[in-house]
Every structure is written in structure tokens, then in C-alpha cells.
# Entry
Amino acid sequence: MAHPARTQVPRAACSRPSRNEGSPIRSARLAIAIAASASFAACAGRQPATGAATGAATGAATAARSTDTLHYPGERHLANIRQLTFEGNNAEAYFSSDGRMLVFQRQEDASRGCDQQYVIGVDGTGLRRVSNGQGRTTCGYFFDRDRRILYSSSHEHSADCPVPPDHSLGYVWPLGHFEIYSQRLDGSDVRKLTSNGAYNAEATVSPDGRRVIFTSTRDGDIDLYTMNTDGSEVRRVTDRVGYDGGAFFSPDGRSIVWRAQYPETAADTADYRRLLGQRLVRPSRLELWVADSDGGNARRITSLGGANFAPFFHPDGKRIIFASNHETPRGRNFDLYLIGVDGSGLEKVTQSPEFDGFPMFSSNGKLVVWASNRGAARAGDTNIFLADWVE
# Structure
């Protein structure tokens, strides 16, 4: 879905709704918004971290910056933190299989425009846009031995940015007109993988590169589905009334982890269905679930309250890293946490006073990438960070 709001955290859900609320639920903007969660006020503006460096790079490639000012006391798992982007809103960065590149969504100017897909080297060089610049995009992911990426886009529905939802309904997320596409890294050979006019987004790929898991409203609810990387053999994975999204496969491809919110009362269900009919959903609490890759043996692994999202398996397959604001559910601070696949051993990873979210490990477990407000040159910017992972 979307990511926190920019204040502004990335584009996930922050405390105060972002101006471009039409982005898909998995985006950072959403995340934060959600996160802010209990109140769902959306993200509030962020203040640059104390002592943060302010060098900025515009346009093309920029070399990564590494400084002690990016590291907070208590972040024992993180070493040699490097900042890879320096302006705008940048979030949902995911490694190529060889660990040399990242694909992520970027809004160059935090005050206007829509998210587009970019790639960058893990050394901070080679930044370039790879989507067509139209509509809004979200959820990029490498596959086919890093020769292709897939992502969701609204450009065929409209080349303009999606219209924000009516907030007289309270804090709601839009379920926009997104289809899933794949293409080569040079932008050629674009292939449309879904075509149903529904919300199709939040897509990631299995470790063997054969199956895509994604969120869709094609059958009237917000559920998880899998399909082949050419769009064939679509299978429904979840069928419980409520929101299921942001799923990832385990390293062996046998399990999945995702975030979910299910109505708990008849009134909740009625409100959920009413909004769904308007292509909207009202976030209140997100918790993490794991299951077999076909949806069987589903079990909830968090009951923390607040907004818990962006889960990703550690390469050992025994732990999951995720973002949460459960310590201050009405605030705008999100941190990264580790938890066992059985729900035990919760451990806090980041200590920044603002937003940290959208974590992903490299396949060998030596690096972790995430989005954060730390080190921002301008309030409201969210950037991509890379660090060596220390056990």
C-alpha cells in the first residue's frame, strides 16, 4: 500500500495525510499515516535529526554519504550507515538479487508531482528514472536475474496524479486504479500483467523468480493473490474480510508475511464494506501475519497496537524485520524492529526520533536498506539509507 506520509516520513503513512493522497496503500506515505495510526492523523512535519549533515545532491547520480551523525546510540545492529538519496521523498527500496542495485519510488519534489520508479547503485551512483513519468507508481521489484522490474502504475487510467480522497469521511486510504507492469531496466518491453480496473499493487517476487504476490480488489475485497511473472495462473491467497497487503515471501519461498487489518465488530464490517464500495479503506490498526505460501496455516505474530507494517524476512528465515509506531501510536515516530516468526523475541533496531521504515535485507544478510527522515537537509524529506548488518 502506500507508505508513510512524508513528513513527513516517506510515503508510508505518517501522521498527517500527504498532499498526494492518491498513492497506493503500500506507499510510504500511507504507512506513516497509518502509523500515526491510532489517530491516523497522517504524518507531521519532521525536524532534521540533531547533527544531521545537510549536503544535498540534485538530479543525476550522487555518491553515498556516510557519517556518524546518521547513527543513533543503541543501534547496535547497524554499522557504516550510508545515505544514498538527498532530497524529496524516497521509499520502498529493494535490492537486486546480486545486491548491486536498488529499485525504489521517488518524488523529487516533496510538494508536488507523483512517485515514479528509480534505480540506483548501492554505492549511491547511477540514479535514474525507469518508469515513464506518468500517473503514480509504487512497489518496484527486481526479477528475471535483475534484467526486469515490476511495479504498479495508474498511468493508463490517467497520466495525472490521482485525486486525493474526501477526508470529510475521516482518515481514509484510496484504492486507486493501479495495474501491475513489468519492463526491462532501460524502460523497454513493457508488459501489462493485470488488467481488471481494480486496485492491483504491493507486488513482490518469490526468491526463485517464478511467482508474484500482490494485493488486489478484483473479487470485491482487499486480498492477497499470487500469479506467474507473466500474469498467468492467478490464485487467491486470503479470503477473510478486511485488508491484507504488503506481502513478502520467505527466503525458501515456502512462507509469506504480510500486514492485515480485519473488522472486529458488525459496525466495523459495515463501515469497511461501505468505504470499499467507494474504493476507500479506513486504517486503524495493522498487525503482522505469517502463513504458508498458499495462505494455509495463517497465524498472527504481533498484537502490538498502532501500525505495524513493511515486514521482511531475515535471510535466516527465523526472524522478521518490520516498522512500527506501537510505542507511540498517536505520534509520528516509527522505528524498525525484529521479531521471531513465532512472535517471540521482539527487539528494537533503530532509535531515531522520527520515521524509519520499509526495511529489506540483502540476500546474504550483510546489508540492510530502509527509508528514514534522519539526515534530511529539508523538513519533509525522506531518504534511502544503507547499513552493514551486525548480529
